[in-house]
UniProtKB/TrEMBL annotation:
<dbReference type="Pfam" id="PF02875">
    <property type="entry name" value="Mur_ligase_C"/>
</dbReference>
<dbReference type="Pfam" id="PF08245">
    <property type="entry name" value="Mur_ligase_M"/>
</dbReference>
<feature type="domain" description="Mur ligase central">
    <location>
        <begin position="97"/>
        <end position="302"/>
    </location>
</feature>
<comment type="subunit">
    <text>Component of the plastid-encoded plastid RNA polymerase (PEP) complex.</text>
</comment>
<dbReference type="InterPro" id="IPR036565">
    <property type="entry name" value="Mur-like_cat_sf"/>
</dbReference>
<dbReference type="InterPro" id="IPR036615">
    <property type="entry name" value="Mur_ligase_C_dom_sf"/>
</dbReference>
<dbReference type="GO" id="GO:0051301">
    <property type="term" value="P:cell division"/>
</dbReference>
<protein>
    <recommendedName>
        <fullName>UDP-N-acetylmuramoyl-L-alanyl-D-glutamate--2,6-diaminopimelate ligase MurE homolog, chloroplastic</fullName>
    </recommendedName>
</protein>
<feature type="domain" description="Mur ligase C-terminal">
    <location>
        <begin position="326"/>
        <end position="471"/>
    </location>
</feature>
<dbReference type="GO" id="GO:0005524">
    <property type="term" value="F:ATP binding"/>
</dbReference>
<comment type="similarity">
    <text>Belongs to the MurCDEF family. MurE subfamily.</text>
</comment>
<dbReference type="InterPro" id="IPR005761">
    <property type="entry name" value="UDP-N-AcMur-Glu-dNH2Pim_ligase"/>
</dbReference>
<dbReference type="InterPro" id="IPR004101">
    <property type="entry name" value="Mur_ligase_C"/>
</dbReference>
<dbReference type="GO" id="GO:0008360">
    <property type="term" value="P:regulation of cell shape"/>
</dbReference>
<dbReference type="GO" id="GO:0016881">
    <property type="term" value="F:acid-amino acid ligase activity"/>
</dbReference>
<dbReference type="GO" id="GO:0005737">
    <property type="term" value="C:cytoplasm"/>
</dbReference>
<dbReference type="InterPro" id="IPR013221">
    <property type="entry name" value="Mur_ligase_cen"/>
</dbReference>
């Protein structure tokens, strides 16, 4: 793409260095807010409880017209919350990220990029809500409810944030949690089947994601950032105003504005040489795997879109994020084999994760995998098949069974390899399980702790153990009980025990 934009005076987006991606305006004093942010009046952050007490008064104060009261309750709640908190998103640059995979890591990279430029930024996402810096709250949903979105953004603004990066889920878009958020940048990472328990069809899932891009209507204030390797790219690009500036990124499509010239993967770091409209950028990242190169490219593209001060700032910010909780997180207790914990819980994510691990040339891949209860049943056999195809050893186990019987979930998974739970129930816990037709081993342990310990006990020098599905999560839901459970801690405990046994001879 040829860039013909000229420097704004004064800039409407990010900085005086916004010389590669900015627009002239006939009204130079309008839209003075930068995408990196500009100081605005600080507002006091007020608790949700206080908001609820004066909900009706807020509606009157904001002069909500009578016909608006005929809207559904959630629409009114969101509108009133935004009004009560004085529309905080209008006073910050808001970057929304949607897609099936990669949202969390990309949001952390963007956060690091802003902080590298000395700018405060908030974050709303799957792992946590960062109000300022390392001050974080535990996340309940990828996209918070409408009132909490406004409350947290008001707190961010009060704490001096110039911007907020937000993971935008399909459910959040579908139920209108983001309708009153004034997004400036829409980012699309990728799209594969997911959340069909909520959306029912893939098309409805895609339409929900598209709502973020439909908000991109003002060429002066809005930007689109799209992964054009994804077959859905043109669909998302077409949403909203076609005149809104677009920055594309890709691994394979060299016509993308941001793409790698070369890269190198290892268990310890990822090195990538990135071509951008502003020059070439070399990045050494602690984030592992080909899929994380996509996330790095997405963050670089956002930096280009918002007019970051320099490529060096973009690179420095990305490099400071050497790990994201539960995303290809390496567990090292001095063992002779590798252990990775990852949030991969969709067929595509598991496929990409195991492909990356295979590129490290391990002797064996040992994968621990489960599927959540009361969620997409269609993906259970598919994920089991992917794991058994790409791992020498697979251990199927539980992953938040919720109201379902864990054995029923495992039975669904086993269908992907032509087996049933009855085939496994006849064996004792430590008995030999016959290999699959491809020669790979498949075990079943309905207790996740046992599955992880079994995998670690199998590990030998040169092997890679992959524990997939829960990542950063610190709980296990079974029935109506939610108990503490952390895959990372379970791996560490198992490794310490194995190391003690090894040292004892």
């Amino acid at each position: 793409m040829a860039f013909s934009f000229t420097l704004l005076s004064p800039p409407t987006l990010l900085s005086p260095h916004y010389n590669q991606f900015s627009l002239k305006t006939r009204h130079p004093h309008h839209h003075r807010r930068h995408l990196l942010g500009e100081p605005f009046r600080r507002l006091p952050a007020i608790g949700v409880e206080k908001f609820q007490q004066i909900h009706c008064q807020a509606a009157r104060d904001s002069k909500v017209q009578e016909e608006d009261f005929r809207k559904n309750e959630s629409d009114l709640e969101e509108s009133n919350a935004a009004s009560f908190y004085r529309y905080p998103s209008k006073n910050m640059a808001v970057i929304g990220i949607t897609g099936t995979n990669g949202k969390t890591t990309t949001s952390y990279l963007i956060k690091g990029m802003y902080e590298a430029m000395g700018l405060r930024i908030g974050l709303l996402g799957t792992v946590a809500y960062y109000v300022y810096g390392d001050n974080k709250l535990e996340s309940s949903y990828t996209t918070p409810d409408a009132v909490l979105v406004q409350n947290l953004m008001a707190k961010m603004l009060h704490n001096g944030s110039k911007a907020v990066v937000m993971e935008v889920s399909s459910q959040g878009l579908a139920v209108g949690r983001c309708n009153m958020v004034d997004f400036n940048v829409a980012v699309f990472t990728n799209l594969t089947r997911d959340h069909l328990d909520f959306h029912v069809t893939e098309e409805e899932y895609r339409k929900a994601k598209a709502k973020l891009f439909q908000m991109m209507v003002d060429p002066e204030r809005h930007r689109k950032v799209v992964n054009i390797d994804d077959p859905n790219a043109h669909f998302f690009i077409a949403q909203g105003n076609p005149d809104v500036p677009l920055v594309t990124f890709a691994m394979d499509n060299k016509n993308a504005d941001v793409h790698p010239l070369e890269f190198e993967l290892s268990l310890f770091e990822t090195q990538v040489l990135v071509n951008t409209p502003r020059g070439v950028l070399k990045i050494s990242s602690g984030l592992l795997g080909r899929h994380n190169i996509y996330n790095i490219l997405a963050a670089v593209a956002v930096g280009i879109a918002v007019g970051a001060d320099s490529l060096e700032d973009i690179g420095r910010g990305i490099e400071k994020v050497d790990a994201v909780p539960g995303r290809c997180e390496v567990i090292d207790e001095g063992q002779a084999f590798g252990v990775i914990v990852d949030y991969a819980h969709t067929p595509d994510a598991v496929y990409r994760l195991l492909d990356f691990v295979r590129e490290l040339a391990p002797k064996r891949i040992i994968t621990v995998l489960g599927c959540g209860g009361d969620r997409d049943q269609w993906k259970r056999p598919t994920m089991a098949k992917i794991s058994t195809d790409k791992s020498e050893v697979t251990i199927l186990t539980s992953d938040n069974p919720r109201s379902e019987d864990p054995l029923d979930i495992l039975d669904d998974m086993l269908a992907g390899v032509g087996r049933t739970m009855q085939d496994y129930l006849k064996y004792e816990e430590n008995d030999y399980y016959p290999p699959l037709p491809n020669g790979h081993q498949l075990f079943v342990h309905s207790t996740r702790r046992v599955a992880i310990r079994s995998a670690v006990a199998m590990g030998k020098e040169g092997d890679m153990i992959v524990v997939a599905g829960k990542g950063h999560e610190t709980y296990l839901i079974q029935g109506d009980k939610k108990e503490f459970f952390d895959d990372r801690e379970e791996c560490r405990d198992a490794l310490k025990y194995v190391n003690v046994l090894s040292q004892a001879g």
